[in-house]
Design brief:
8 helices, 4-stranded antiparallel beta sheet, binds adenosine-5'-triphosphate, Rossmann fold
């Protein structure tokens, strides 16, 4: 469980300013959804959180320590799965476990990989399959099993369901939500990039909207517990639907505001 604090973060690719004075406070165990138009810098922000890029100015603090480089404290799940194509499903998970748990024996790694696969509804039969033999949904299940397997306190997810069909997307949203909720004592802090306002409303405890590049946070919203509804009830709730409309308008530039409704 780690708090994340972003202070006056700016970032440029060469002279091209992409992120401009981003500020954010995120409590340990939050599920943060990042929304914004294409090209506004959401993935860049995630890369900075991962330590794969360095801020041009400002800083990112994880439990009051500045993020200097990539580390096992932060796991990542990308839209394109990021699996090694020459390794089987099981090996893709086991190699990540080897990095994190250096004293684990090969047998223990296999048992743990199978347990993590079961969590995401992959079977023993899938263990030896290569990524090319899996559907997109199965590949993403494998990537999720791997990310949860190394058990990072912070999980960064960049449009993980963007390439999936609607039915698979719903299943995987529920799966990630269940895995995240299950860890009551040690809940991960998740940063989840999406284009989909409904996905954010379903998953997030906190929503941040990025404006157009050079991007600032133009809106933020935190759910109070009683306002957090599930897939079945949220579309019947006038408060959530008002928030949905507001988010749609902000993302499409009809409203420019930083306050909550
Ligand atoms: N390696 C790079 N070098 C130079 N410019 C880059 C690089 N990566 C991204 N950019 C530029 O930075 C800007 C932000 O890109 P980024 O991918 O972070 O946006 P995004 O909000 O995640 O977009 P999308 O929603 O379409 O994935 C874009 O203008 C993009 O062209």
């Amino acid at each position: 469980m780690l708090d994340v604090s972003v202070k006056h973060l700016s970032f440029s690719y060469d002279k091209d300013l992409i992120l401009d004075d981003i500020n954010m406070k995120v409590k340990a165990g939050a599920f943060v959804c990042l929304l914004g138009q294409s090209g506004c810098g959401k993935s860049t922000f995630l890369r900075l959180l991962a330590g794969l890029e360095k801020p041009s100015s400002g800083e990112i603090l994880v439990d009051n320590e500045s993020v200097a480089k990539a580390g096992l404290q932060r796991g990542v799940v990308f839209q394109d799965y990021g699996l090694f194509p020459w390794m089987s499903t099981g090996e893709n998970i086991m190699i990540a476990l080897k990095q994190k748990f250096k004293n684990m024996s090969s047998d223990e790694r296999k048992t743990e990989a199978l347990r993590r696969m079961k969590d995401v509804e992959l079977t023993e039969v899938d263990f030896d399959k290569l990524p090319k033999e899996l559907s997109g949904g199965m590949k993403q299940r494998c990537a999720i099993a791997r990310a949860f397997g190394i058990d990072p306190p912070i999980l960064l997810m960049d449009e993980p369901f963007g390439a999936l069909d609607a039915v698979t997307r719903v299943k995987l949203q529920d799966l990630v939500l269940d895995l995240w909720k299950k860890e009551t004592a040690n809940r991960k802090t998740i940063f989840f990039v999406t284009h989909d306002v409904d996905e954010a409303l379903l998953l997030a405890t906190d929503i941040f909207v990025f404006g157009q590049s050079p991007s600032k946070i133009i809106y933020s919203y935190s759910f109070k517990n009683e306002k957090k509804l599930d897939r079945k009830t949220m579309h019947d709730d006038s408060y959530v639907m008002e928030l949905r409309n507001q988010l749609m308008k902000i993302i499409h530039n009809e409203v420019r505001t930083k306050s909550s409704i």
